[in-house]
Amino acid sequence: MNKEQLEKLLFSERINVFAVLDGASIPGLRDKFFEMRPPHHCLIRGELEPDMQEVSPYVVGLIPGTPFVDWLLAEYFGKHWGIFVQSRRSLKEMRFQFRRLLTVMNEAGDPMIFRFYDPRVLNRFLPTCNPEELETFFGSVENYLTEDMEKNLMVRYSRADGELATADLDE
Question: Which of 41, 110, 150, 153 could form a disulfide with 95 if both were Cys (CB 3.0 to 4.6 A apart)?
């Protein structure tokens, strides 16, 4: 899928678009933030050492036609860099929501980082959710959009009548 197709999918509606990006998967992501200045927030709380800042997940507000969005959409596909989100909420509200999803407990009750922002994880996780889990995970998100590298296309996840709705988007 090319940049123009991604741009059309993401920005075709009047709704805010965000990316949740994995600093561990994107070489030089923080340099891109510094250079291009997109609105963004780290999902890890507190003061982080520079090496942790490099590998942390970030939520980024996407504005079509800006250098950061042009770069991201041109380079994104096939690299499992993160996911896209459509919501009517603000960047600050999305940061709050995604921070709540970031930590989960394992069977022993120990906290773990949930890499929901990795498309390979999200594509496997969402179909297993019951309606209550979908309500928690979606919150104020209208759509999650992510690449499916096996099918070589984008997938849109939304909710319909409390259930997961999935659509393959090849254009």
Answer: 41
